[in-house]
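Today's session is about reading a structure prediction critically. Students often jump straight to the picture, but the first step is always the sequence itself: look for stretches that repeat, for charged clusters, for runs of hydrophobic residues. Only then move on to the predicted structure, which in these notes is written as discrete structure tokens rather than atom positions. Here is the chain we will use throughout the hour.
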Amino acid sequence: MEGKTYKRIKGLVAATFTPFDNEGKVNIGIIPKYADYLAKEKVQGIFICGTSGESLSLSTTERVILAEAWLKAAKKRFRVIIHVGSNNQAEAIELAKHASKIGADGIAMMAPTFFKPCNIDDLITFFKPVATSASNTPFYYYNMPSATGVSLSVKEFLRKAKTIIPNLVGVKFTSNSFMEMAECINLEEHRFEVLNGYDENLICALALGVEGGVGSTYNYIPSIYNHLIEAFKQGDLEKARILQMRSIDIVNIIIRHGGGTRGGKAIMHLLGIDCGNCRPPFSPITESEYTVLKEELKQVNLL
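Below is the predicted structure for this chain, in token form.
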């Protein structure tokens, strides 16, 4: 990133949901309201077209439209990181070029999920032309082995890729391997930014030195996490633990309703930000499910 100074993220990055209308088409009309809501909730950034955004269920054109809509709606109130990952390298290059052109604050990319890289060299070879096509935009490796099936050493990737991908700034670390997380944080005197990817483990990541995180629950309960971070900074670990358990209670609810994307979209609907249903293979939320969900959320004092 020649000529650019990169400032690390400190705080919450909401992994946004992709809004769909009743016909299952992308609904960018809700995005300005969605952006205003997130700005008011004091998120530091958004991560669009990722797992929560159903990226691999979107066409290239839809991802371009979403990127433009979010950049416009953000109004520089928070950073916009665009996930450009794809099993098709050419598509990822196209998306990365577009993200850079419209002024994204960062791009991210997960490993290909069907034909998988066998080693770190293969992964770097897949990423390099994508990152190079947006050479002035910070590049994050989106590590999520539970979804991609790629469990290569993140530490070794960072160590080896640093000179091959000059705009590599860090990793979205969506894994429960805290040993590996610690190694990445401390690699070469904290050279790389490590963003926690599992919301329910934020307190553990903070203890290791993480300063920011990317997550879907930051869309609808950011205040819990902002208070958790502040309590941790103040040394009030008991309060931080209580707040983390509050988030865990809510995570358990969304798991019962189809996971972070399906359940999360339903919660956003109840909060007044209608993102519609997910695309198949996720089934639509039924009215009876909404009734149960409302009661469960009331029990944990969310609604």
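Discussion point for the tutorial: The chain has a mean pLDDT of 96.
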